[in-house]
Design a protein that fits this description.
- The complex is a heterodimer of chains A (113) and B (109).
- Chain A contains no helices and 11 strands.
- By secondary structure, chain A is mostly beta strands.
- In chain A, the strands form 2 sheets. In chain A, strands 2, 4, 5, 6, 9, 10 and 11 form a 7-stranded mixed beta sheet that branches. A 4-stranded antiparallel beta sheet of chain A has the order 1-3-8-7, with no helix packed on it.
- The N and C termini of chain A lie far apart (31 Å).
- Chain B has 109 residues and is an all-beta fold.
- Chain B has strands at residues 3-5, 9-13, 18-25, 32-37, 44-49, 53-57, 60-65, 70-75, 84-91, 97-99, 103-108.
- In chain B, the strands form 2 sheets. In chain B, strands 2, 4, 5, 9, 10 and 11 form a 6-stranded mixed beta sheet that branches. Chain B has a 5-stranded antiparallel beta sheet with strand order 1-3-8-7-6, with no helix packed on it.
- In chain B, a hairpin with a 2-residue loop joins strand 6 and strand 7 (60-65).
- The chains are: A mainly beta (113), B mainly beta (109).
- At the A-B interface, strand 10 of A face strand 5, strand 9 and strand 10 of B.
Chain lengths: 113, 109
């Protein structure tokens, strides 16, 4: 039990579909993150929320849309994705301090067909 | 640009010692993290170094030299469960995390 739960674990979607990834943290943290992990590449930060406000958007295409309704929940809404968006999407949370370690969920393995 | 280098893959024998290196070139430095990630699982925090020297935590130790832009993770008495990817990440001057691509460690009996 990592304290950060992501659903679904696996998702296959067509390019015209709309789907959402869900993340929930049970650690009382005040910052939440979405990362993209592709094989043999460094983790790519997509979005950061601190105290439910978005503080970072690293030039992510608009087909990815985050939502943070409260400090415990984070969503990533997906629409009209491309095959190159296939990857492992990791959610993480932290206390919000500059050097606080990240606590990751197990990720959603996304395949776009 | 900012860059983190670590070997792509390493192989070691059960019971032995292995050292995984990480070199970095970043705009400023506010600490270095090591994470462990088993296949199909979440990365988990191993260590954080901000001052030079060696920090030991059980079978795992992490070393930092800021002047050389260099760190290593030392794993002793290797066990099969240590087979995983090890991720190095640096906090730059803006407190942004810069990640390496990870080192896949394979442990053989």
């Amino acid at each position: 039990e990592t304290g950060v739960t992501q659903t679904p674990r696996h998702l296959v979607m067509g390019m015209t579909n709309k789907k959402s990834l869900k993340c929930e943290q049970h650690l009382g943290h005040n910052a939440m993150y979405w990362y993209k992990q592709s094989a043999k590449k460094p983790l790519e930060l997509m979005f950061v929320y601190s105290l439910e406000e978005r503080v970072e958007n690293n030039s992510v295409p608009s087909r990815f849309s985050p939502e943070c309704p409260n400090s415990s929940h984070l969503f990533l809404h997906l629409h009209t994705l491309q095959p190159e968006d296939s990857a492992l999407y990791l959610c993480a949370s932290s206390q919000g301090g500059d050097n606080s370690p990240l606590h990751f969920g197990n990720g959603t393995r996304l395949t776009v067909t | 640009g900012q860059n983190i280098d670590q070997p792509t893959e390493m192989t070691a024998t059960e019971g032995a010692i292995v050292q995984i290196n990480c070199t970095y070139q970043t705009s400023g430095f506010n600490g270095l993290f090591w994470y462990q990630q088993h296949a199909g699982e979440a990365p988990t925090f191993l260590s954080y170094n901000v001052l030079d020297g060696l920090e030991e935590k059980g079978r795992f130790s992490s070393f930092l030299s800021r002047s050389k832009g260099y760190s290593y993770l030392l794993l002793k008495e290797l066990q099969m469960k240590d087979s995983a990817s090890y991720l190095c990440a640096v906090l730059d001057s803006n407190y942004q995390l810069i990640w390496g691509a990870g080192t896949k460690l394979i442990i053989k009996p």
